[in-house]
User: What shape does this take?
Amino acid sequence: MDITAFYQELDQLFRAGQIEQVEPYLLKQAADAGEKQDPSAALAVLNELIGFYRSQQRYEDAIHISGQALALCGHEAIFGSASHATTLLNSATAYRFAGQPQKALELFSQAETIYQGQLSPTDEHYAGLYNNMSAAYSDIGEYDRSADCLLRAAAIMDALPERVKEAAITHANLAALYSKMQNWSGAKEQIAKACDLLRGIPEAAEQYKQFCSMQEMFSKHPD
Assistant: This one.
């Protein structure tokens, strides 16, 4: 299977707004990859299908396809690879959106184990993982663990100047979480960092304005 041609055709369908053709295209490509016994290509297609179903709020369908994709990850050429980690992340997100955060956390943890064997602790991929884990912990009311994940993500993003907007959003998310915990000193500290990061960046002006509004709101609460 020509994976480059696959992605080009898929991108063309999205650019043309032909959303109704995306599912049949992905299902056909998955079947073709299966018939050709090309597990790596099949996994790539299934991951796209998981994401598509999630975007359409068809969470049970996303979970169903996640099961097929995770089964493929048992293949010796895939197990423990970056593709395996990506599949775990996509599947975990599907479970979280389907209202199963505990299952999501189990899969996120497996992805973290793969990362630990492949990536530097400061790799940007960890930030995405920790942001997702934070949301799942928040879903089950474990706010301290949720905050810890966001702190880890923020530490990574702060060291990447080219990701200043993503870093600011992470600090703002942490501020919002602290406000939920009524940790107002923490909320004020984090939203101040978010504002400082975006100050003077023209393309982030609207986001900066929103963060400043949050900062003003939090300032009304005593530490």
Notes: The mean pLDDT is 96.
